[in-house]
Write a structure and sequence with these properties.
This protein has 201 residues and is α+β, with helices and mostly antiparallel strands. The chain has 2 domains: 10-49 and 143-194, no CATH class; 52-139, no CATH class. The protein contains 4 helices and 8 strands, in the order ααββββββαββα. The strands form 2 sheets. Strands 1, 2, 3, 4, 5 and 6 form a 6-stranded antiparallel β-sheet that branches. The chain has a two-stranded antiparallel sheet with strand order 7-8. Helix 1 (10-17) packs across helix 3 (145-160), helix 2 packs across helix 3 (145-160) and helix 3 runs antiparallel to helix 4 (185-191). It is elongated.
Length: 201
């Protein structure tokens, strides 16, 4: 198999585990599976994904001037459904009608909201179901280095589990350690700045 939208490469994991470049094909397949699975686990933990994919997303605005969106590394079109007929027909102009909101203290952070300007000619249609259409590239333009490091550490740990299928390592003489059934604490530390805040249920 091949890695799908992984945050590290097969060779990254081989190097981390000291496997060199001559690992057997079954090992390659297992590494690919682990990297893909860990990458999706990171997505779930953070509430966002760090690869890029072209797409269209629809949002319901609750404010005339601001609407939160998913991560977009590039936006080519923003339209609104101002007459509530289910079809976005009004095109907003970037930097005239709206500006993108991002984390300006961290380079490479994608846009996470749309802010209507005070000098534009349009506002957002409030409470119109999926009344704001955004087209562009979702996700991140480049995978952040802490995410890469977290994926490598977690993937290496999960791959090493093949030698400890029952979740314990060590020996009676030297001591037995139960392996964590959660993300590595260092992985959580590296990913913490990228987590999307979630409301308590």
């Amino acid at each position: 198999m091949a890695i799908t939208n992984g945050y590290v490469s097969r060779q990254d994991i081989k190097s981390a585990l000291g496997l060199g470049t001559a690992a057997l094909t079954p090992d390659d397949d297992e590494i690919d599976q682990v990297v893909t699975s860990v990458s999706r686990t990171i997505d779930d933990y953070c509430g966002r994904f760090f690869y890029s994919v072209a797409g269209t997303a629809l949002y319901t605005a609750t404010d005339y001037l601001y609407v939160a969106i998913d991560d977009f590394s590039a936006i080519t079109s923003v339209k609104t459904d101002e007459n509530n007929d289910g079809t976005p027909e009004v095109t907003l102009t970037a930097n005239t009608d709206y500006r993108l909101v991002t984390n300006q203290t961290v380079p490479g952070w994608p846009a996470t909201a749309i802010q209507i300007t005070s000098f534009g000619t349009h506002t957002l249609p409030v409470l119109v179901t999926q009344g704001v259409q955004v087209i562009g590239t979702r996700g991140w333009a480049a995978i952040p280095e802490p995410v890469k490091a977290a994926a490598q550490l977690q993937s290496s740990r999960i791959y090493a589990r093949r030698a400890t299928p029952f979740g314990v390592a060590g020996s009676p003489e030297g001591g037995i350690v139960r392996l964590l059934s959660r993300l590595d604490p260092d992985v959580e530390l590296m990913l913490r700045p990228y987590r999307v805040p979630r409301e308590a249920l």
